[in-house]
Protein backbone atom coordinates (compact mmCIF):
# COMPACT_ATOMS: atom_id res chain seq x y z
CA UNK A 1 0.00 0.00 0.00
CA UNK A 2 1.43 3.31 -1.07
CA UNK A 3 1.12 6.34 1.22
CA UNK A 4 0.31 9.59 -0.55
CA UNK A 5 1.10 12.95 0.97
CA UNK A 6 -0.81 16.11 0.20
CA UNK A 7 0.89 18.41 -2.23
CA UNK A 8 2.10 21.84 -1.23
CA UNK A 9 -0.81 23.40 -3.11
CA UNK A 10 -3.30 21.27 -1.18
CA UNK A 11 -1.66 22.28 2.10
CA UNK A 12 -1.80 25.96 1.18
CA UNK A 13 -5.46 25.71 0.18
CA UNK A 14 -6.24 23.91 3.45
CA UNK A 15 -4.39 26.60 5.42
CA UNK A 16 -6.26 29.39 3.63
CA UNK A 17 -9.57 27.56 4.13
CA UNK A 18 -9.02 27.26 7.89
CA UNK A 19 -7.84 30.86 8.13
CA UNK A 20 -11.03 31.98 6.38
CA UNK A 21 -13.13 29.77 8.63
CA UNK A 22 -11.39 31.12 11.73
CA UNK A 23 -12.09 34.68 10.59
CA UNK A 24 -15.68 33.66 9.87
CA UNK A 25 -16.02 32.23 13.38
CA UNK A 26 -14.75 35.51 14.83
CA UNK A 27 -17.20 37.33 12.57
CA UNK A 28 -20.05 35.18 13.86
CA UNK A 29 -19.16 36.10 17.43
CA UNK A 30 -18.65 39.80 16.71
CA UNK A 31 -21.75 40.25 14.56
CA UNK A 32 -23.82 38.05 16.85
CA UNK A 33 -22.98 40.22 19.85
CA UNK A 34 -23.61 43.40 17.83
CA UNK A 35 -27.02 42.12 16.69
CA UNK A 36 -27.87 41.02 20.22
CA UNK A 37 -26.95 44.52 21.40
CA UNK A 38 -29.27 46.03 18.78
CA UNK A 39 -32.11 43.79 19.91
CA UNK A 40 -31.59 44.43 23.62
CA UNK A 41 -31.16 48.19 23.21
CA UNK A 42 -34.11 48.39 20.83
CA UNK A 43 -36.34 46.69 23.39
CA UNK A 44 -35.67 49.31 26.04
CA UNK A 45 -38.19 52.11 25.93
CA UNK A 46 -36.52 54.30 28.58
CA UNK A 47 -34.62 56.41 26.05
CA UNK A 48 -35.85 59.02 23.61
CA UNK A 49 -36.77 57.54 20.20
CA UNK A 50 -34.38 58.32 17.35
CA UNK A 51 -35.49 60.46 14.42
CA UNK A 52 -35.78 58.56 11.15
CA UNK A 53 -33.41 60.99 9.36
CA UNK A 54 -31.70 64.28 10.15
CA UNK A 55 -31.81 67.20 7.75
CA UNK A 56 -28.50 67.33 5.91
CA UNK A 57 -27.36 64.00 7.34
CA UNK A 58 -29.93 61.24 6.78
CA UNK A 59 -27.72 58.54 8.30
CA UNK A 60 -27.00 60.61 11.40
CA UNK A 61 -23.90 62.15 12.89
CA UNK A 62 -21.44 61.10 15.55
CA UNK A 63 -23.46 62.96 18.17
CA UNK A 64 -26.94 62.00 16.94
CA UNK A 65 -27.78 58.72 15.25
CA UNK A 66 -30.89 58.11 13.21
CA UNK A 67 -33.14 55.14 12.61
CA UNK A 68 -31.99 54.94 8.98
CA UNK A 69 -28.33 54.84 10.01
CA UNK A 70 -29.01 52.22 12.68
CA UNK A 71 -31.05 50.08 10.28
CA UNK A 72 -28.31 50.28 7.64
CA UNK A 73 -25.65 49.35 10.20
CA UNK A 74 -27.84 46.45 11.35
CA UNK A 75 -28.31 45.30 7.74
CA UNK A 76 -24.54 45.24 7.30
CA UNK A 77 -24.17 43.18 10.47
CA UNK A 78 -26.89 40.75 9.36
CA UNK A 79 -25.23 40.27 5.97
CA UNK A 80 -21.84 39.69 7.61
CA UNK A 81 -23.38 37.31 10.16
CA UNK A 82 -25.19 35.22 7.53
CA UNK A 83 -22.15 35.21 5.24
CA UNK A 84 -19.89 34.09 8.08
CA UNK A 85 -22.23 31.23 8.95
CA UNK A 86 -22.44 30.10 5.32
CA UNK A 87 -18.63 30.19 4.98
CA UNK A 88 -18.46 26.71 6.48
CA UNK A 89 -20.63 25.14 3.73
CA UNK A 90 -20.98 27.32 0.63
CA UNK A 91 -17.82 29.32 0.10
CA UNK A 92 -18.76 31.28 -3.02
CA UNK A 93 -22.21 32.20 -1.76
CA UNK A 94 -20.74 33.23 1.58
CA UNK A 95 -18.09 35.34 -0.17
CA UNK A 96 -20.77 37.21 -2.12
CA UNK A 97 -22.81 37.90 1.00
CA UNK A 98 -19.73 38.98 2.94
CA UNK A 99 -18.75 41.37 0.16
CA UNK A 100 -22.28 42.83 0.23
CA UNK A 101 -21.98 43.32 3.99
CA UNK A 102 -18.60 45.01 3.52
CA UNK A 103 -20.02 47.33 0.87
CA UNK A 104 -22.85 48.36 3.21
CA UNK A 105 -20.42 49.03 6.06
CA UNK A 106 -17.95 50.86 3.78
CA UNK A 107 -20.75 53.02 2.38
CA UNK A 108 -21.68 54.06 5.92
CA UNK A 109 -18.02 54.84 6.50
CA UNK A 110 -17.83 56.97 3.35
CA UNK A 111 -21.04 58.79 4.25
CA UNK A 112 -19.75 59.58 7.74
CA UNK A 113 -16.43 61.07 6.55
CA UNK A 114 -17.74 64.67 6.18
CA UNK A 115 -19.02 64.60 9.80
CA UNK A 116 -16.73 67.03 11.59
CA UNK A 117 -18.19 66.28 15.05
CA UNK A 118 -16.59 62.83 15.11
CA UNK A 119 -13.04 62.25 16.25
CA UNK A 120 -10.70 61.29 13.40
CA UNK A 121 -9.97 57.82 14.77
CA UNK A 122 -13.66 56.86 14.87
CA UNK A 123 -13.86 56.91 11.06
CA UNK A 124 -10.95 54.50 10.72
CA UNK A 125 -12.20 52.31 13.55
CA UNK A 126 -15.50 51.89 11.74
CA UNK A 127 -13.72 50.85 8.55
CA UNK A 128 -11.23 48.48 10.18
CA UNK A 129 -13.73 46.84 12.54
CA UNK A 130 -16.85 46.59 10.40
CA UNK A 131 -15.88 46.61 6.71
CA UNK A 132 -12.43 45.06 6.34
CA UNK A 133 -12.77 41.73 8.23
CA UNK A 134 -15.73 40.45 6.17
CA UNK A 135 -14.02 41.64 2.99
CA UNK A 136 -10.76 39.84 3.81
CA UNK A 137 -12.70 36.69 4.70
CA UNK A 138 -14.59 36.93 1.39
CA UNK A 139 -11.36 37.31 -0.59
CA UNK A 140 -9.87 34.25 1.13
CA UNK A 141 -13.04 32.27 0.39
CA UNK A 142 -12.92 33.31 -3.27
CA UNK A 143 -9.26 32.30 -3.53
CA UNK A 144 -9.93 28.77 -2.28
CA UNK A 145 -13.18 28.33 -4.21
CA UNK A 146 -11.39 28.59 -7.56
CA UNK A 147 -11.11 24.92 -8.43
CA UNK A 148 -10.27 23.98 -12.01
CA UNK A 149 -12.65 21.51 -13.62
CA UNK A 150 -14.77 21.27 -10.49
CA UNK A 151 -12.17 19.25 -8.60
CA UNK A 152 -12.21 19.32 -4.83
CA UNK A 153 -8.51 20.13 -4.37
Could you give a short account of the major beta sheet? none
Order of helices and strands: HHHH
Helix content: 55-70%
Count of individual beta strands:
0
Oligomer: single chain
The geometry reads as: elongated
User: Which class best fits the helix and strand makeup?
Assistant: mainly alpha
Low-confidence stretches: 148-153
C-alpha-based Rg, rounded:
19 Å
Label the CATH architecture.
Answer: Up-down Bundle
Measure the end-to-end span: 22 Å
Mean pLDDT: 81
CATH class: Mainly Alpha
Number of helices, counting only DSSP H or I runs of 4 residues or more? 4
What is the total domain count? 1
The name CATH uses for the topology is Four Helix Bundle (Hemerythrin (Met), subunit A)
The percentage of residues in β strands lies in under 5%
Question: How is this structure best described in words?
Answer:
There is one protein chain. By secondary structure, this protein is mainly α. It has one domain: Up-down Bundle (Four Helix Bundle (Hemerythrin (Met), subunit A)), CATH 1.20.120. The protein contains four helices and no strands. It has helices at residues 8-43, 67-86, 91-112, 120-144. The longest helix has 36 residues, at 8-43. Residues 148-153 have low confidence and may be disordered.
Keywords:
153 residues; single chain; Four Helix Bundle (Hemerythrin (Met), subunit A); 67% helix; mainly alpha; disordered C terminus
Quick recap of the structure?
This protein is mostly helical. It has helices at 8-43, 67-86, 91-112, 120-144.
Amino acid sequence: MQVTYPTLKARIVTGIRWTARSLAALGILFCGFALLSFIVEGGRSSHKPLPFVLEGSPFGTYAQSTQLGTLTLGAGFVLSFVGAILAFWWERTAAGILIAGSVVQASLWAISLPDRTAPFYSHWDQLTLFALPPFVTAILLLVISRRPNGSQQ
